[in-house]
Every structure is written in structure tokens, then in C-alpha cells.
Amino acid sequence: MKKVIFAIAATITISTLSTAFVYADAHNSGKEENEMVEKLQDLTRDNTWEQKGKIDLKFNTYHPQGMTKVGDVYYMSSVEIIEKPVKLNKPQEGYDRTPGKGIGHLFVFNNEGELLKDIKLGEGSIYHPGGIAYDGKSVWVPAAEYRPNSKSIIYKIDPQTMKSKEVFRANDHIGGILRDGKHGTLKAVSWGSRSFYEFNEKGKVLSKSNNPSHFIDYQDCENAGKDSMICSGITELPQHGSANDKYELGGLALLDMRTMDMVHELPITLFSTQGHVVTRNPVFLENTKQGIKMYAVPDDDQSSMLVYETKVNRTTGQDN
User: Fold this and answer.
1) Interatomic CA distance for residues 268 and 60, integer angstroms
2) CA dist., res. 22 & res. 13, Å (int)
3) If we measure between CA atoms, which residue out of 102, 130, 304, 121 comes closest to residue 218?
4) Distance between CA 284 and CA 319 in Å, rounded?
5) What is the mean pLDDT of each run of 10 residues along the chain (320 residues)?
6) CB under 8 Å to 316, separation ≥6 — which residues?
7) Sequence-ordered list of residues with C-beta below 8 angstroms from that of 110, at least 6 positions apart, any chain
8) Ordered DSSP codes for 142-171
9) Residues sharing a CB contact under 8 Å with residue 226, sequence separation 6 or more, in sequence order
């Protein structure tokens, strides 16, 4: 789910690649920031999302998780599952399933879908990256065990060098994280986003609270400005008359970062050709002149980045 990047483009060199990056101003409180939050609040289920593009990713994406954008370059976390965790009949040592095996990836790619860098993250049973965010200087990525109530490593990646640095470790499954540039703290969600965390940059838990919303599980969040964050996600609902088929309900949620209260939420009913709702995992939202642009990678393995745009007319509404 995602942050709009507003700032000054600076051309830098990454290995042999020269790329223009746009650095976000985490302290921006100007017109653009207010406009994005207002647009998000005006989104409804009646908004029409028009597909503007489809970029085939020219690498195995495995199981994508979170995405952010730095200038014209995209960062996308993903888990390569080698051995799936297996549910246990009875919890053992506090876990409801085996750890499984896998490899954590942070893919960096361009507008042509070409892979620029594959950054490996995690260690041992910690191999599942989650929702990611860019704070104007670093890309923040959590990597966790692939099971609830487990352990995580929080990384930040320097876009100039594309090198990762471990920042701290957490005693829970952290499924998504972002840095609040205004206050210098980190906001995070647990497995299924059932808990909200606030950390300082040394990993001290400043607060923990329950998520009161059960509409969707947040998979990917970013700073939307104006003390707000936008999260995207999914929940699976049973289909009438079927014991196995599930309906994927997607959605977006705007949260107040100061209180973690939900300000506005709405369903998203766009589906990929493989039948997945587009907010299933990686999503990035961007401000446009007339509305909001959404980038999404809902499918696994041989994936495409789908690009949608919706117009936001603040003067229209609909009576029920």
C-alpha cells in the first residue's frame, strides 16, 4: 500500500548504471502532501481504476511481498520458498508450524522490467521479507520467520550503494515497516497486521497496540505525508457452496500514524489474469495531476507489474 515521492531529483551512479533518483522529503507539509491525503480520503468503491500499463518482469519473482519506488527504480521484496512451513497438530515451543526453508530477496528493477540487483536478506529460519518503504534516504525492509509470533531482522538499504545494513532485531513476525521521518520512529505491523508496533531506531518497542480493523490484513504500507500512512492488503473469504475456494478481497486503508487509527478504507476489486486481487501483496501509490496512480505485482514467479490510475474529483459524490 503507498507513499508519494516529492523532492529534488539527484543523478547518481550505481555500479555502471546512472539513474535519476527523487528523494522524498519526510518533513514536507506543503500542498502536494495535503493533496495526496485528501485524495486518498475521497477514494470510494465507485472509483474507476483504468489500466495504464503492464510491465513484464524479466526475472523469477518467486512470491512478491512489498514494493517501493525511488525515482525510476523499483524495489520489491520477495520470498523464495524452498520448503513450505507445515502446520502442526499441536503448538511446539510456541509455534503453530515448522519454520520451513527459503531465501529472502530484495529485487531492484527498472521501467523495462529488467533486474538491476538481487539483494539477499535474512539468515537461517529468517527468510521472509515483508512490506517495505522508502523514507527519502533508505529503503526499510523487515525479514521474518514464515510463521506468526516469531522473530525478525530489520534492514535498511542505501539506494546509492544498494547495500543492506541490519538495524535491529524484533521478537515477533514483522510483516511490514516504514519510518516516520517527522518523528524518527518506525511503524510496523505483525503477522496479518493484527498488532501495530512503534520502534525507535535501536529496536526498542515504544508502543504496541491491537489493530481494531478486520476488513483486510495489511501487507504493504508507506508514508502518505501529513502524519498519515497508506496500507494495502487482502483477506480471503469463503465462497458460498465451496469448501476450498476463497474469494480474495483487496483494499486500501489510510491510517493516522500518531494514533494508528483507521481514517478511511475502501475495497479494491481489480484482478490479475491469474485471478489474484491486485492488492494481494506489493503495491505502490503515486500522486498524479488528476488523481492517483497504483503500481501492483499480484502474481507469483513470472509476474507483471500492473499500472492503474484513477481520477479523483473532489466535487462529486453519490447518494445511496
Assistant:
1) 26
2) 14
3) 130
4) 30
5) 39 32 38 85 96 98 98 97 97 95 98 98 98 97 98 98 98 98 95 97 97 96 94 94 87 97 96 96 95 98 98 60
6) none
7) 72, 73, 74, 116
8) EEEESSSS--EEEEEEETTTTEEEEEEEES
9) 29, 33, 34, 36, 37
